[in-house]
Design brief:
13% helix; eight-stranded antiparallel β-barrel; Lipocalin; 2 helices; mainly beta; 180 residues; elongated
Length: 180
């Protein structure tokens, strides 16, 4: 009787062990190819595309996020200046997932107008290039680039010439300390 009970308990234990090892498949978001954390720099360009200032805000590298919307569709994502380093903005952009491009014209700044942010945000020339950047550690990473302007840009109004836009460019966060 003890052997039978012991055999049944062993069988149940083995079954539990094997069933607990089954992994549920976790789905990616619809914007998995374009979503991420990015280390970027911001340059001011004149109307002809010439660099006026390669580090217009004087702080070097910033972090931004790109992520899916609540609708979780592949043709829309948010761009978020998560730490509000220069202009605080969160804007929804249209995405072409096949070409990894994105843009918006007068998109609503979900942070709203403020002394330091735009009421609307325009993004042109947005693109992501797979393995298109070389990180400080010498590793390849995805590259991001876009041109952004704000409807209530106080810096442009007070310090930069008309027609100035900001060029945002950088690489996808790698998680390696050497790339920080």
């Amino acid at each position: 009787m003890k052997k039978t009970l012991y055999s049944i308990l062993m069988l149940v234990g083995v079954l539990v062990a094997f069933t607990s090892c089954e992994k549920e498949e976790i789905e990616n978001t619809a914007t998995v190819e374009t979503a991420g954390e990015w280390h970027i720099s911001v340059a001011a360009l004149d109307a002809d595309g010439e660099v006026l200032d390669p580090d217009v805000f004087g702080d070097g590298v910033y972090n931004i996020l790109t992520c899916n919307t609540a609708a979780n569709v592949s043709d829309k994502m948010f761009i978020i200046d998560e730490m509000c380093y220069y202009f605080p903005y969160q804007v929804e952009v249209k995405v072409d997932p096949a070409n990894l491009t994105f843009s918006t014209s007068d998109g609503e700044n979900l942070f709203g107008p403020s002394d330091y942010g735009g009421a609307t945000v325009s993004i042109t020339g947005g693109k992501i290039v797979k393995d298109g950047a070389m990180t400080p550690s010498g590793m390849k990473a995805d590259y991001i680039e876009y041109f952004v302007s704000f409807s209530d840009d106080y810096i442009l109004a007070n310090y930069l010439p008309a027609g100035t836009v900001y060029k945002v460019s950088g690489y996808r966060y790698t998680g390696f300390a050497a790339d920080e």
